[in-house]
# Entry
Amino acid sequence: MIELYLFLVFMIIAAFVATEIKDLLAAVISLGAVGFSVAIMFILVQAPDLAIVQIVVEVVTIVIFVAVIFRTTHVDETIGKKLTSSHVLSIVLYAFFALIFFIAMVRALQELPAFGNATMKVASEYIRLGLPQTGGANLVADVILDFRALDTLGEATVLFTSVIGVIALMRSVGRKK
Amino acid sequence: MKGMSLIVKTITNVMIGFIFIYGVYIILHGHLTPGGGFAGGVIIAGALVLRVLAYGSEAGAEKRSETRASIFESIGALLFVGIAIAGLMLAGVFFRNFLPKGVPLNLLSGGIIPFCNIAISFKVGAGLFSIFLSLAAVKYVMKD
Amino acid sequence: MIIFLSCIILFLIGLYAIVTKRNLIKIVIGFAFIEYAINLLFALIGFRRGMLAPIITQVDMPHKFVDPIPQALVLTAIVIALGTTALMLSVVLRIYNRYKTFDIAEIRKLKG
# Structure
């Protein structure tokens, strides 16, 4: 699985470029590079459902980002300014936290099964009962719409809330008193 | 919002029907092949976004289509909750799969799963399209 | 193990953008990186070597599939991520129209 590691290295480089570059449009293009790499990695780990959704969502994300940047400005003025004390403090705090978090994640991920040998206690039941009990052949659709449909209802509510938030924030004229 | 050049408009004319049909196919075969309501809804929203970007539109038309998209989103949400409540009424459990299972690997199988896919696709597609319209297309006046 | 830690590094880059950058668009991009890292970590945890995607194509095929549960959890999270990103961007657009800058230090100064 060498290609997975190559994609991950590419994604880390592109993510670093996106955070440090001066042109915001280039930063958004780097974000798109990371997103499409994620889509290709979903195909490589046998998740075609996720790959389809990720590709289309990435396109719409970039369209929205570019629309916002076209309406405002595409130069990041904060790059290249001299560092203030609060900025230095935030970098030091970040480095401290990142070190602790990384060590904790190394400890935690050692408890997980190694890459490529997932334990499937619950999933084996879903796979065994999926076709007989629901009749659907796509097991991911069975899980999200039959076994765990209440979870999907909650996610749909979150999406509805965010749509209402965007429409309310972007309303052209406020309501008359 | 202004439209784009003649080349973009012509290509859009050719492609938009295919994109729409592909989205509908992804939704209707969501219980048999990769895809489903989420993927198909976003594809349909992408086709609508392509039309607005290529042809442009006036502020009044955008306002009207935003209202229409909100109505479609509400229809999708009500349909999804309605399927759940129908399960509660007819079989006693919220989100019970109360319809007959059908022949496996056929288009008419899976009980409520295809209908849930259709409801979610309405919701996701119309929701994302109205996000795009209100964030990118509608001109607004700032009054501070 | 190393492949999981690479996802954690991507997460930390997103956190770096959120904590230390002073441009609002960069902060939103940092949130997007965190979402990608978590989604990818879930999909990688559910992977099994040599197994197929969890879709039944024949009625009596052997059940050699990757784990479908992380995929089901991530599938909804991707669409939610787009919704939250759009909400953040609309707030950013409002702030820009009010203060004419993306720099959070400037915005703090203008507030008084």
Observations:
- Chain B has one domain: 6-137.
- Chain B touches chain A through 55 residues (CB under 8 Å).
- Residues 6-137 of chain B form one domain.
- Chain B has a mean pLDDT of 85.
